[in-house]
Specification:
With about 375 residues, the protein is an alpha+beta fold. It has 2 domains: about 15-20 and about 30-40 and about 200-370, Poly(a)-polymerase, middle domain (Orthogonal Bundle), CATH 1.10.1410; about 50-195, Beta Polymerase, domain 2. The chain contains 11 helices and 7 strands. It has helices at about 35-45, 50-70, 90-95, 115-130, 180-195, 200-215, 225-230, 255-265, 290-310, 315-320, 360-370; strands at about 80-90, 100-110, 140-145, 145-150, 155-160, 340, 345-350. It has a 5-stranded mixed sheet, sandwiched between helices. Strands 6-7 form a two-stranded antiparallel ribbon. Helix 1 (about 35-45) packs across helix 6 (about 200-215), helix 2 (about 50-70) packs across helix 4 (about 115-130) and helix 6 packs across helix 7. The longest helix has 23 residues, at about 50-70. The model is unreliable at about 235-240, about 325-335 and about 370-373 (pLDDT under 50).
């Protein structure tokens, strides 16, 4: 009997060199001490100073203190009724990057989340803080997710959410965007999961470094912070990039960094990959939040950077290209992922994206370009 029953589309796990060391034995063990030192050095540069962390913590405490008082005394604030307030984001996780002094909180409302309520809450927080400390310099700016309370040294983002029964009552013309409200709830789950599962020091170090690389290479910008978190820590109860080896031994930081680039290069965020399941939403793979073109771009960028890393371009990838003692780079390039770079004994040609949009999408894109011109 030829053929068989069609079982539908099946995704596949990406190739992972870490799990097959005996199949691909190394002729000579590579000395990666230089990369390890550069990673630690870069982490020190990216870690917020004590003054920065103190400024963020002080403003965060003031904002949450005011909101908690409004929860205890609901009659003192008539614009909305508050259920609870939760801290989320990079500051909560311990992965904040220097010069990005922002703390995130989610305020869950019992009442419907109107733009007026979000504005009133932000203004009330500023008023109460200034009432207690008249010399405090603060301002409130409305955002589509809620509002921001900003001072000269730190910012607190107030993301608005509402209790689940209210989600069916939302009016797009009156209330905050449904997608953003859901995103605020998801941020709470992410922060709770991270606190319970990803508190290892190397995890936080690698996340901070990858977030910095993402900010400097446009090809990585489609990845959101949650995708980076899960890349570093992957699968239930097991550190995928930072901790997992065939013998369950912890990986060194330099090994974990190489492995992250290897997994991205192998297509861990491509459509056919089954690897990264969202632990907060088991029916969803995190790469689904990116378009197909963006998934291809992330993979191609990682392939280029992995080749640069193999040629000794550690400093250029980590943002330390101005450091002295660089014996690898023959001459400097502005963008490693878009221009051919020459190293001591090799050229590195950037990988090209291969995704081609369907004919209908291409026609729409051409029409949009023509109208814009």
């Amino acid at each position: 009997m030829r053929g068989g029953r069609y079982n539908g589309y099946r995704s596949r796990a990406v190739f992972d060199l870490t799990f097959c060391p005996n199949v691909f034995p190394k002729v000579v063990e590579k000395d990666d001490s230089a990369l390890m030192q550069l990673l630690l050095s870069r982490n020190e540069e990216l870690t917020p100073t004590t003054a920065e962390q103190t400024a963020v913590m002080n403003l965060l405490n003031k904002v949450t203190s005011v909101i908690e008082k409004l929860i205890v005394n609901p009659d003192s604030f008539t614009a909305a009724s508050i259920e609870e307030v939760k801290q989320v984001g990079s500051f909560k996780k311990g992965t904040m990057v220097t010069k990005h002094n922002v703390a995130d909180i989610v305020v869950i409302l019992k009442t419907l989340p109107t733009t007026e309520a979000a504005n009133a809450l932000g203004n009330r927080v500023v008023e109460d803080i200034k009432l207690a400390e008249p010399k405090e310099v603060l301002g409130c700016v409305y955002r589509d997710f809620g509002c921001e309370i900003g001072g000269p040294e730190a910012v607190v983002k107030i993301m608005i959410a509402t209790i689940p029964p209210n989600m069916k009552k939302l009016d797009p013309t009156l209330h905050l965007n449904t997608t953003l409200l859901n995103r605020s709830f998801v941020a709470i789950r992410h922060a709770r999961w991270f606190e319970e599962n990803a508190s290892h020091y190397n995890v936080k170090v690698l996340i901070r470094i990858l977030k910095d690389i993402r900010s400097r290479f446009a090809g990585f910008q489609p990845m959101n912070p949650w995708m980076i978190d899960l890349l570093v820590w992957y699968y239930l109860f097991a550190y995928y990039a930072t901790m997992t080896t065939p013998n369950r031994d912890p990986l060194q930081l330099n090994q974990a960094f190489r492995r992250c680039l290897q997994l991205l290069s192998a297509g861990i965020f491509l459509p056919g990959s089954s690897n990264v399941v969202d632990p907060c939403d088991p029916g969803f793979r995190v790469q689904q939040s990116m378009s197909l073109a963006d998934q291809d771009l992330v993979c191609a960028t990682a392939q280029t950077l992995l080749r640069v890393l193999a040629c000794g371009g550690h400093k250029q990838i980590l943002g330390l290209e101005n450091s002295s003692g660089n014996s690898f780079l023959v001459f400097r390039f502005q963008n490693l992922t878009k221009e051919v770079s020459l190293w001591t004994d090799a050229f590195v040609t950037p990988s090209e994206t291969v995704y081609e949009p369907p004919a209908e999408e291409a026609v729409v894109a051409n029409v949009a370009t023509t109208v814009t011109v």
